[in-house]
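ok new one. same drill as before - structure tokens go in, u give me an amino acid for every spot. 267 of them this time. try not to just spam alanines like last time pls lmao
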């Protein structure tokens, strides 16, 4: 399992969002989400691999993850993801804990979902290889466990991780230039760390205006430093980052939360 340089920072920041809660068992792997469900809903139908409609007519989306979709990410696995979720939920009473600022622009509430027999659906879906970790703002709770589930699925090449088209991308992959606007997971070795007026740049190539870069806003860099993690110490370390590719000279990912970046090797 990868070493998370930001583990302490993540815990500290999450504590500012969530009060202590009773841990809920997730699946046979023992993964837990420390959220207390606030309501019960009954699943009427499965929209796709991470979206359900309740008998009350509400649409809810599984928070913190992105399942394979027919017209999007990992399309060949979309049917399997939907069928798996449908088999776990249709006609069942589900415990949910809402997260985030409220309904998204499609009117969906983002929630963590637990079955009557204690299965945390996010962890199980990611662990089966039918989804990857993708948190939206306000969905940072329980992410260390989801990253652990994703890492296990990737190591065993479960589900979508068996298909090279959906694998983690190398920071030196020239195809990153063509993936502007897409959410990706990228790995590589940080060659240098640069400091701008309001941004810290983790550069993966020697030509920083055309090679892949991680952009860390100054406020987040300060939070990490206060938690004991100086970004300058990441130079020459192998790193995994997740986020939307944008153009900043070369391809780049701008992170907004410590969970988006993992250091994969120990000194």
């Amino acid at each position: 399992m990868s070493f998370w340089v930001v583990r302490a920072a993540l815990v500290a920041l999450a504590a500012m969002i969530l009060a202590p809660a009773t841990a809920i068992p997730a699946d046979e792997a023992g993964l837990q989400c420390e959220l207390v469900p606030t309501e019960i809903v009954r699943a009427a139908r499965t929209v796709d691999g991470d979206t359900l409609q309740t008998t009350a007519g509400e649409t809810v989306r599984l928070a913190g993850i992105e399942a394979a979709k027919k017209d999007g990410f990992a399309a060949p696995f979309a049917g399997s993801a939907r069928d798996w979720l449908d088999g776990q939920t249709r006609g069942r009473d589900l415990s949910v804990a809402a997260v985030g600022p409220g309904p998204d622009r499609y009117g969906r509430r983002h929630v963590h979902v637990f079955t009557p027999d204690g299965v945390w659906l996010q962890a199980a879906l990611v662990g089966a290889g039918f989804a990857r970790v993708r948190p939206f703002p306000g969905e940072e709770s329980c992410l260390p466990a989801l990253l652990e589930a994703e890492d296990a699925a990737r190591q065993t090449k479960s589900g979508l991780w068996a298909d090279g088209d959906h694998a983690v991308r190398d920071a030196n992959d020239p195809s990153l230039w063509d993936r502007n606007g897409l959410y990706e997971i990228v790995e590589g070795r940080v060659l240098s760390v640069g400091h701008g007026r309001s941004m810290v740049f983790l550069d993966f190539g020697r030509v920083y205006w055309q090679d892949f870069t991680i952009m860390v806003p100054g406020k987040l860099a300060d939070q990490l430093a206060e938690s004991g993690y100086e970004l300058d110490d990441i130079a020459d370390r192998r790193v995994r980052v997740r986020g939307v590719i944008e153009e900043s000279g070369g391809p780049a990912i701008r992170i907004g939360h410590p969970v988006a970046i993992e250091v994969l090797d120990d000194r």
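DSSP finds five helices and 17 strands in the chain. and btw Residues 1-28 have pLDDT under 50 and may be disordered.
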